[in-house]
Amino acid sequence: MNSREKIAAVPLDTLKVIPYPDPRLKEVCTPIDEVDDAVRALAEKMAELMFAARGVGLAAPQVGVSVRMFLASPTFQPGDLHVYINPTILAHEGVAHEEEGCLSFPNIFCKIKRYAQVTVEATDLSGRRFTQTCDGLHARIVQHENDHLEGVLLADRMGSVAKLTHRKALRQLEEEYAS
Ligand SMILES: [Zn+2]
To answer: Which of 18, 58, 115, 179 lies deepest, with the highest CB count within 10 Å?
Structure first.
């Protein structure tokens, strides 16, 4: 399926954040061919779901649409909403070891090592390519959400200590999903 078919396959009003270990979270996402009204409507619906869940980032595969788009709102203000379509991380600098969560891993927070600063190139909702350098939480969100587009999850980034600490919570999510 191309991106247009993937977006059309999931009706907007049925979208919701899917939890780990839903296999759709492990897919490598498809590039978006064209930024059209369907892509803009998907982004709008994702923003609604992200703010409702009190998240600061959300990737399309987290709502079951495996296309290369994610959102970030590092200040959690509706006016501060960044949309990244077909993103590429061009450069990075430094290291930051901070607490991180994920809407697909409810109630799990753990320290994850990320780059302190990244430069990302992406397409915006008007179809224009842009380049942005961000740091702090914004850089962390970009790296976390960009991972989602490759099917890489918080659990894959956890160190052995964090995995042990959150073993029970992860198993609980697995059991909830299976039932
Ligand atoms: Zn996530």
So the answer is: 58
